[in-house]
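Sanity check

After download, print the first record. It should look like this:
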Amino acid sequence: MKKLKEFFWFCAGANKEILHRCPTEQAKYMGIGGTILFTAIMAGLAGGYAFESAFGDPRLSIPFGIFWGLMIFNLDRYIVSSTGKGDGTSKITRDEWTNALPRLAMAVLLGFVIATPLELRLFEKEINMEIETLKQERRAEAREQISGNYGEVEELELKVVEYETALAAKGAARDEAYQAMIAEAEGMAGSGKPGVGKIYRQKKSQYEKQEREYLELKASTEKKVEKLEARIQNFKQSQDEEVANIDNIAGQYDGLMAKLEAFNKLTARYPAMNIAKWMISIMLILIEIAPILFKMMTERGPYDDIVERMKHITQVQEMEAISKANAETQTNIALAEAENEARLRIEMENQEEIMAMMAEAQIRLAREKIAEF
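Expected structure tokens:
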């Protein structure tokens, strides 16, 4: 229990040596540390689930979840430990809200980041059903677009129908000529006399003409239709390949973005789900900002007095050290200036002595030259 208690203190960013001297403050920082720890655990689970939804690989999602939880833990620990103690009273004043606003904003943002993957996990079944609906819609839209890109197929099919209709009309005219020829031969039409006569030969000639035209048109139509059907088959094969590719892409639309889109549509469609989503988000945000609010509402205690005294002692010591360093620096500067002045004075005296010796030597040399002259 002692190790666990000290671990919670560490999570709260508190000094355990000071807390050992303040028994009345220990429970407070245990609560703060526990809140930070459990928030980090939820963040790790949420981050792991989000990463698994995006990449579908548990071997990567577990390390990422641990990393995400540790990062949130470090951020929460810093935010709470840097909040301070406010004004030391149980009331939260306007100045305290103003000073804590950046930390509260960061905590709210972290709450939303943690809440979103958890919401996706809680409503996973409904989201998966909505994703299937979105897949079908995407497939239908893609197929409609692809069909629009292959409008030439319909034109080719219409041409085939026109050719076949013309051939059928020519065939009907041929059959009609044949029936007229047979009726004349049997005496059931035309002259009304059975047998082969002049009118029969005319009917036969008309039938043979229709037969030749029909056979010629049939041969020509078959060639044209064969070419058109070959082109239609190529177009349909390309269209089927594009549709299969679209279906494959739509089948893979089940990642994190798909879940977010489906969840957004569900919350817009069902008010109850939207309320549940906001309740979860608000709950996690309150958990996230609770340590900060708790510290601002907490009255001043012995732990705060000791920490403030230690800060003051450290600040005074540092100021003394700075003052001492400044004094030493000034002394060293003064000594250096005095040394430089002494050196300069000696150099000037030496220079004067040298100049006097040079003048004396010049005078002596001049006298010797005059005596020699």
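If your output differs, re-run the checksum step. Summary of this record's structure: The longest helix spans residues 302-372.
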